[in-house]
């Protein structure tokens, strides 16, 4: 599997594009995530992320400049690995022309990176086998670019789970001084 972490400048602010999965899906319904999915035979992880992004939200690969591959992340159940691909959407106006597959995606929105850094949190988990801490991001400051008709969109959004782990990894690399400082000051 691979996902695209789409960066874009929206109204002059560096932002991250996220999707909210349709509530009609069998798994992970209503969760905030990055566009992406399963690799098809013969595809690279970059090709998978770009194809899935196009299938889910209609963002054409010609409008995405690939910046980097991040370290792959394994799901807690150890049943699959996800490779995050960081890309920059070269023209903000494409967000006004998205063709969203409503069977898979309820909403498409962007959150400014500085907002994510300010609202980074940590959640501690205890399982029978181990204890671990994962990042979370809560935001009330986001711009909706698409929302399926008749679907309720909360006034705040939470990024958690694998998406938060990948977002944490990206923010740490993109702006380590600001992001790490904000996280350390907030929690220690």
TrEMBL record:
UniProt KW Disulfide bond keyword: no
GO biological processes: nucleoside diphosphate metabolic process
UniProt keywords, alphabetically: Hydrolase, Magnesium, Manganese, Metal-binding
Protein name: Nudix hydrolase domain-containing protein
GO MF annotation terms: coenzyme A diphosphatase activity; magnesium ion binding; manganese ion binding
Keyword Hydrolase: yes
Superkingdom to which the source organism belongs: Eukaryota
Co-factor(s): Mg(2+); Mn(2+)
InterPro entries documented for this protein: CoAse, NUDIX_hydrolase-like_dom_sf, NUDIX_hydrolase_CS, NUDIX_hydrolase_dom, NUDIX_hydrolase_NudL_CS
UniProt family annotation: Belongs to the Nudix hydrolase family. PCD1 subfamily.
Domain Nudix hydrolase: 1-138
UniProt cross-references to Gene3D superfamilies, sorted A to Z: Nucleoside Triphosphate Pyrophosphohydrolase (3.90.79.10)
UniProt cross-references to SUPFAM superfamilies, sorted A to Z: Nudix (SSF55811)
């Amino acid at each position: 599997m691979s996902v695209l972490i789409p960066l874009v400048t929206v109204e002059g602010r560096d932002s991250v594009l996220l999707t909210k999965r349709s509530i009609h899906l069998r798994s992970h319904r209503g969760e905030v995530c990055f566009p992406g999915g399963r690799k098809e035979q013969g595809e690279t992880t970059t090709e998978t992320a770009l194809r899935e992004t196009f299938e889910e939200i209609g963002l054409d690969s010609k409008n995405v400049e690939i910046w980097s591959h991040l370290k792959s992340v394994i799901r807690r159940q150890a049943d699959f690995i996800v490779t995050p691909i960081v890309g920059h959407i070269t023209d903000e106006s494409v967000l006004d022309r998205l063709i969203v597959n409503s069977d898979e995606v309820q909403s498409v929105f962007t959150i400014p990176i500085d907002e994510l850094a300010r609202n980074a949190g940590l959640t501690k988990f205890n399982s029978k086998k181990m204890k671990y801490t994962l990042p979370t991001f809560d935001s009330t400051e986001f711009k909706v670019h698409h929302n399926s008709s008749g679907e309720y969109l909360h006034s705040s959004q939470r990024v958690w789970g694998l998406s938060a782990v990948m977002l944490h990894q990206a923010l740490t690399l993109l702006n380590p001084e600001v992001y790490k400082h904000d996280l350390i000051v907030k929690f220690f």
